[in-house]
Amino acid sequence: MTLKDPEAIHDVEGVGIHSVHRHDVVIIGAGLAGMRAAVEASGEFDVAVISKVFPTRSHSGGAQGGIAASLANEEEDHWEWHMFDTIKGSDYLGDQDAIEILVKEAPTVVREFEHFGCPFSRTPEGRIAQRKFGGHTKDFGKGGPVLRACYAVDRTGHALLHTLYEICIRNEVRFYSEFQAMSLIVRDGVCRGVVAWDIVNGGMHVFHAKTVMFGTGGYGKVFKITSNAMANTGDGLSLVLKAGLPLEDMEFVQFHPTGLYLQGILVSEAVRGEGGYLINGKGERFMEKYAPSKMELAPRDLVSRSIQTEINEGRGINGEAYVHVDIRHLGEEKIMKQLPQIHELAWKFMHIDCIKEPIPIQPTGHYSMGGIPTNIDGEVLFDGKNTPVKGFYAAGECACVSVHGGNRLGTNSLLEASLFGRRCGKSIIRFLRENRDWPELPADSAKGALDEVEWLLNTDGTEKVGEIRDDLQVLMTNKCGIFRDRATLEELTGDLKKLEERYENIKIDDKSEKFNSDLLEASELGHMIEFCELIVAGALSREESRGAHSRTDFPKRDDEKWLKHTLAWKKGEEIRFDYKPVTITRFQPQERKY
Amino acid sequence: MRVIKRYRIHMGTFAWILHRLSGLGLISYLLLHIWVISHLSGGERSFDGIMHSFGSPMFKLMEIGLVGVILFHLFNGLRVTLIDMGVMVEKQKTLFVIAVIIWLGTWFAFSAIMLSKMGLLPFTV
Amino acid sequence: MKYKETTRSGGALPWLFQRISGVYLAIVLFVHVVNLHILIDGEIGYAAIAERVATPLWKTINISFLIVALFHGLYGLWIVLEDYIHIGWLRVLIYGVIATIALVFAIFGTLTMITFQYGG
Amino acid sequence: MAMITFKINRYNPDDEKRGHFVQEYQIDVPKGYTLLDCLNDIKWKLDGTLTYRRSCRSGICGSCAMTINGVNNLACETQVLGLNCSTVTVEPLRGYPVVKDLAVSLDPIVRGLLAVKPYLMTKTPPPTDQERLQSPEEREKLDGLYECILCGSCTSSCPSFWADKEYIGPHALLKAYRFVADSRDECPGEHLEPIDDKHGLWRCHTIFNCVEACPKDLNPTKAIAELKKELIRGKLG
Ligand SMILES: Cc1cc2nc3c(=O)[nH]c(=O)nc-3n(C[C@H](O)[C@H](O)[C@H](O)COP(=O)(O)OP(=O)(O)OC[C@H]3O[C@@H](n4cnc5c(N)ncnc54)[C@H](O)[C@@H]3O)c2cc1C
Ligand code: HEM
Ligand code: SF4
Ligand code: F3S
Ligand code: FES
Questions:
Q1: For residue A65, what is the DSSP state?
Q2: Total structural domains in chain D?
Q3: Which one of the listed residues A300, A422, A484, A542 is annotated catalytic?
Q4: Residues β-bridged to residue A565
Q5: CATH number of the domain encompassing residue C102
Q6: pTM for the full model?
Q7: CB-based burial label for A574 (10 Å; 0-12, 13-18, 19+)
Q8: Is residue B2 part of a domain?
Q9: Distance CA A73, CA A414 (A)
Q10: Residue pLDDT, tens place only, A376-412
Q11: What domain range includes position D86?
Q12: Which residues of A touch D61 (CB under 8 A)?
C-alpha cells in the first residue's frame, strides 16, 4: 500500500526551518475529533494529521463507559429525551440548536462507527448493546434511567479510537506522528497553517494549509489530581489565544467524584452504581448529610462537592485529602463478576485488594466544557457576533460549540468529539470546493515557535519546570477546583503572575534537539500558565453557581445576569471579556433538581 | 544503535532452543548415517568394518544420547504440530510439561534396555 | 510509511509438509529405533541389517524414510539459516549447497537401498 | 516507603561515541508508586534529560512499554514495591532501534501493522440507518484480539523478529486475525494474502515469548495458529 508521499517541499525564508509541507487539510490531534474529521475529508482532499502522540495513544482511548445515542436498541428512547437530559445537565447553558444536532445525528454517527468495524458489544438480536449512565433518563427526566450509552465492554474509547485509526489507514491519511504543534498561523482573519516541532528527530516544520482543524483535546494536566493523560496539556487553547482569538466558557471544569487517591485515575461510576459506600475518616456514610434520598447515587457535581467538603473540614481518612469508597460488603463473587476492572485497577495502581480493603479516592479533574468557540459547522469564531475565521475549524474537547454548557453528561463527549469532528470534515470539504487557492504563507510564520524553542534551549535560569508545574497544579486544584470564591480566586490571580515570573527564570537540563521531552514539557507548561489565567479570570467574573462552576459566595444560579457565554481574549497581560447569548429553542430554563 | 536481543527464558523459548539444536544435531547425524549405511553396498566386510569402528562402548553410550535427542525432537515436534493445529495453545506450558514427561519416560525405558543389552546393568530388562 | 513490498514467497506448503513429514517421521523413526535398539539382539551387524533391508516392504519404507527425513532435516536447516543470514548472495549460495546435498544424498542413499541384494 | 535503586539503560543520539550506558538513580518509593511515577520523579527532580514515552498512565495507550527487570511490561502498571527487590533495571524495549534512552523507534510496529490491511473490508454496502448485525457469539470471537494497545512488547520479545527485521511481528498477526475473525469482514483473503510470506506468518516458530511479554494478557500465538489453519485451509481448497 502506498501512502501519499510528502508534498513537494518549497522554501520559505527564515532560519532554522527544517522543511515546509503543503496539504489541503492539516488536522492537529489524532483523537476521535481529529481522526473523524480526517476520515470524512480524506476521500476528496489531501489530509495530514499531526499528533504529539502516536494516533492510537490519544486520550480518547482512555474512555471506558460508552457513547450516547438514542438507538432504542434495548428499550424505548427518543432524541427529544436525550436532548432534554443534555440541556438539563448543562444547567441550561448549552446552546440548544447545537444540542439538537448532537442528539439527532448521534444514531447515524454511532452506526457509522459500527460500519467502520468498531467491535461494539451486542444485544442477543445482534444489535449494538446499550447501558445506563448518570443523567440519562426516560420521558424528559420523569422516568428512570434509560439504556442509552452504546459500549464495547469497558473499552469503548479504545475500540472507537483504533477503529478510526484503521479507517484513516484505509483512506491513506498522511500522519505526522509525534509532531508537536507550536503555533498557529492566522493573519487578517485567514488561517494559513501551523508550525510544529518534530519530536523524534528535532527540527521545526511549517505546514502550509488551505484549512486547519484543531482536535487537540483537554487540559486536565493543569490540575494536580486528574483523570487525564499526561499529554492533555491543552496546547491547542494557548495556540489559539496567541493567535489573537478568544476562548469560551473556560471557567467550567468538570470534576469526577471518584479518582484514585493521588493518582486521579478514574474509578468508574459503576462502583457506586453497584452499591459501594462512601466513607469518611470518622467511619460515617457521609452522603446522608448531603443527599439523604439518593445517597451515593446523587449527580456527579453534587457528590464531588460533598466529598470535597468532608476533606476540607478535616474529615478525610486520617485527616488526609481522601475518603474511602468501600465495596467489601458486596462480597468477592459480586466484585469479581460485576467490577473486575475496578479490582484490577485498585490492585495495579494502588496495590490494594478491594475485596479486603476500601479504596482511597478523591475528586479528580476530568473534563473541560469550555474551549475554542465554534459554530455548528465547526468553524472557529473570533468575536461575539459569530464571525468565523476563514479556513479554521475545531472540534472535540478543545472546542466549545457549546453542547455541554455548564456541565457535561457522561458519554456525551465521545459523541460530541466524533460528531462535530465529522461535521468539521464536511464543512472543510464544502470550503475547499469553493476555495481552490492557497492562502499566502507569511515569511516569518515560524518565528514565534523558533524563538520559543531557542529561548527554552538557551535560557539559563534557576527554576525547574517540574517544580513550577507542580505548584501550578496544586494551586489550581486548591484555589480553582470544585469550590471557588472571590478571595481565593484573587489570590490565585496573583499566584499565577508569580508563576509566570518564575517561568521566565527556568532552566532545562536537556539541551539536545532529538526527543527532547524536557523541552516540550517546558513549552507545555508555558502554555498552561497562559490559559489558566483565563480560567481563573472567568471564574472570578462569573458571579453565580451553575453546573460545575460553584462559587461559595454566590451559591445560586443567576439566569438574569449570567445566562450567557463568556468569551475571553488575552493580549499581553490584559484579559478582555465579551459575552454572547445562549441559544434557547425548545426547553426554557428551570431549576435543576434530580 | 545497539539492539538488545535477549529475553527471559521460559518454557516456550527453552523448548524452541532445544528443538532447534536437536534438529540440527539430527540432520548432521542423518547425513553421517546415510554414508554409513551406504557401506552395505560394499558387502559384509566393508559394512562390518565401519560398524566396528562405531562399536566401541563410547559410541554405544553416545547412541543412547542420540536416542534421547531423537525422542525429544519427536515429542516436542508433535507438541509444536498440535499447537499449530490450535490444540492447547492457551495451555502450552502444560503441553510442554507433558511432552517432557513422555520424552523422559521413553528415553529412560530405551536407555535401560540398551544398557542392559550391553551388560552394563546388573539385571536384564 | 510503507511496508516493504516483498515478492510474496508463500511458504505455506513447505510449512505444511514440514509438519506432515514430522508426523510421518515420528511414526517411522519410532519403529526404527525400537527395531534397532530393542528388538535386535546382540551386535548390530551386517547380517542383522541386511536381512531386513532386503525385503521389498522394508526397501520402500526405508527409501521413503530417507527422502522424507532429508527433506525435513534440510528444509529445517534452511529455515534456521534463513533466520540468521540476510546477505543476498550468501543465501543463494547456501540454498544451492543445501539443494545439492539433498540431491546427492537422496540419490546416494536410494541407490544403496535399491542395488543392495542380500546374499547376492 | 523504601529506598530503591534504578539502573536505567541510557542512550543519547547526540553522543554516539558513548553509546549505551547504565545510569543509577536512587529514590524513596512510597506504597502505590508505579514505575512511571518513579521515572517522573527522577526526570522532574533529578535529571531532566531522562527520556521515555508516556501518556495515559492507566495502561491503555501503550506508550510506556519497556523492559523492567528483564521482562517487558508497562511502566505505568508496574508496582515498584510489588517487584520485591531493591534494585530495578529498566531498559528500552528489546529488538527495536533505540531513539533515545527508553524510547524506541515505532517504525517496525507501524510497518507490520500497515502490511496486514488493518481495517474492516466489505463488499456489500452497510444497511442504511441500521448497524450490521452480529450475534454476541460472533462478537465474542473478537475478545482477546481487539484489546491490543499496540505497545509493541510482543514483537520486541520475539526471537524470530530479532533474527529477521522484516518479520511482520506478532502484533501485526494478531491484528490480521482480529479482522479475519470478524463475522462482518467479507474479504479475509485480503488480510491473509500479505502474511502468507516467508517474512510473514511462516517466520513464527511458536516460541511463545510474545505471549509471555504481552501486558494485556493477549495470546498472539493463538491468533497465529488460527491464521495458519485459515491459510492452509485456503490452500487446500
Ligand atoms: C478517564 C476518562 C474517561 C472518559 N470516559 C468517557 C466516556 O465513557 N464517555 C465519554 O463520552 N467521554 C469520556 N471521557 C471524555 C472523552 O474521552 C474526551 O473528552 C474525548 O475523548 C476527547 O476527544 P478529543 O478528540 O477531543 O481529544 P483527545 O482524544 O484527547 O486527542 C487529543 C489529540 O490532540 C493531540 N495534541 C494535543 N496537543 C497537541 C499539540 N500541541 N501538537 C500536536 N498534537 C497535539 C494529541 O496528541 C491527541 O492526538 C473520558 C475522559 C477521561 C479522562
Ligand atoms: C521424529 C519425528 C520428528 C518430528 C515430529 C519433527 C517435527 C518437527 C517440526 C514440527 C519442526 C518445525 C519446527 C518449526 O518450524 O518451528 C521440525 C524442525 C526441524 N526438524 Fe524435525 N521432526 C522430526 C524428526 C526430525 C529428524 C529425523 C530430523 C533430522 C534429520 C529433523 C530435523 C529438523 C530440523 C533441522 C528442524 C528445524 C529446526 C528449527 O526450525 O528450529 N527432525 N521438526
Ligand atoms: S499483542 Fe499485547 S504486547 Fe503485542 S502490541 Fe498488542 S498489547 Fe502489546
Ligand atoms: S514470540 Fe515470535 S516466533 Fe511466534 S509465537 Fe510469538 S511470534
Ligand atoms: S502511559 Fe499509557 S500505557 Fe502506560
A1: S
A2: 2
A3: A300
A4: A580
A5: 1.20.1300.10
A6: 0.93
A7: exposed
A8: no
A9: 19
A10: 999 999 988 899 999 999 999 999 999 999 999 989 9
A11: 2-104
A12: 53, 56-59, 61-62, 229
